[in-house]
Amino acid sequence: MHGRIRAQLLKGTTTLLVLTVLRDGELYGYEIAQRIRGRSGGAFAPGEGSLYPALHALEADGALEASWRDSDRGPRRRYYKITKSGLAMLAEHSHEWAAFSQGMARAVEGN
Amino acid sequence: MDALSGWLTIILYVGGIGGFLIATVALVRRSERRLGGGRSNVSPAAPAAPGGSPDPITTYLDQMTPELMLPAEDVAEVRAELADHLGDSIANLEAEGLEREDAVREALGRLGPPRELGRQLRIAHQSTRRLLAGVGGGIFAAGGGFVLGYLGGTAVGLLLMLATVAGATALSTVVGLHLPDMTSGDGGSTANSILLAIAIAVAAAAATRYAVRTSAGLSRRSPGSVAVFWAVAAVLGFGWWFLFAYRGPQSWPSVAIELCIPLIAAAAAIVRVERPMPHVGRWAIVVLLVGAIVPMVLLLGVTSSGPASMTTISQSGPEPDLHLATVAPMAPAAWLPDGAIIGGGWGSDASGTRVAFDLNPSLSGLTMGSVLANWRDIRFEAWRALPDSDPGSTGIDPQYTTPLLAQPAVISGDSLQAVLHLERMRYSGMWWVVLTGIGPDGGRYLLQVGGGGNTSFNGSVWDWLTTAQ
Prior knowledge:
The complex is a heterodimer.
Chain A: H1 2-10, H2 14-22, E1 27-28, H3 29-39, H4 48-60, E2 64-69, E3 77-82, H5 84-109
Chain B: H1 2-34, H2 56-68, H3 72-95, H4 100-111, H5 114-125, H6 128-175, H7 189-219, H8 223-245, E1 248-249, H9 252-270, H10 282-305, E2 341-349, E3 352-359, H11 368-371, E4 376-384, E5 405-408, E6 410-412, E7 415-420, E8 429-438, E9 444-455, E10 458-459, H12 461-466
Antiparallel strand pairs in B: 1-10, 2-3, 3-7, 4-5, 4-8, 6-7, 8-9
Helix pairs in contact in B: 1-6, 1-7, 1-10, 2-3, 2-5, 3-4, 6-7, 7-8, 7-9, 8-9
């Protein structure tokens, strides 16, 4: 039950979470998922099936750049890097999220 | 000064078209790299499991792939990325204590149903911006492909013709079999029309192929998924263009080829469309331009400065015998002063043959209207003429009893004028134009003996099919 509620709440926030973790540096897909999970203390874990479509859509929109590079082990990995356009998108999404979450908190708490 | 202007024209032609073609080739190459025509920068993903048993990861990726409908390079990247992700995920789950089989099942479950993932990834790749880039790039590449195909098609057509001539000569020499000569009697118009039809057929095929491959790469779609769109566009666009809009020399063989062009273009869009386009290098473009466009421009410069391809109007009497009695008797001097109307001149191009006969300027005080006051139904008549291959015979071919074409003459100042659409008559070939009118006694008489020329059919396929002749 809790998982379903969280999944609903996470809908639409994947973009914000991805851009947020990529602000600190280049990461590949699995690292991004792990980093989101770690930063939220395990509270947020975006469905891995929605992570890659989000990454590829952000790349198509110019918010991310992707490049194949050698990894420490095994095959080459696809690393994502945030662009200037992505930083602007992150600022916009962050502002929207802050306004939304504050409004939601006031509504839920009844203040 | 004229020579300088001519060379400047050539430089502008070659430079402009060359730049356009080089830009097209660069665009096509970029798209080809995306379509997997170049070297892939990703590693092969998820090799099959040993022992021949189906590997669940490969099975998952194979189920997802058909939903992607992306270019080969994108498909390879997606598969490699997801295989890499699953490798990490399974390793971590195993580290957490899961058995290999359970770890694989859990990792695949976290990615969700493979077809849904493939569909979501396709949506992510195929943005509206990329779609517009694909359509625009496809149209641009089609233009460049058409020019390249036209140049290449001209070369192919010329080689075919050379081979045909060589074959016909060999048959004639060795076996004694004489094939019909397609160049005599029409000034090479039939051969020219076939050469042009071959060139534009190759051009249409190249244009469509370039459009498919370029638009697929730029819009991030598999060539197969955009092929139907371009095939329909080619059938409609080229079908309309080559049936109604394109005007040029025609013959039955060229009309047959042009009617097939929509199908040829559609086949070029669909058949083996995943196969990369052959690379056209910059030097190949330079050679094509220098080899084809420079002679073309030089030829245009020569023909545009010269007179129309016909004989001058004869102003003399019926010497030698022009077989004018076939048309009508000469007008009696009592009804039309001798030499009152002189052959003014004419010009012939793709839009028709404009004829103008003038009032003799020595007849001061008279007008064309007053000279022809006793005449009615004055018209220009075009008759089939004897071929000019025999210098001993000229004028109207006496075996014909009716004109090819008759057009009322319109008085304009001191001129009688008309436009004769001889270019819309199949195989009009050699002709002779005279001026006739009905005299006071109700009989038709020859008012001016005129002159001859040679015209080939010039129009669209539709014009050819619907012409009255």
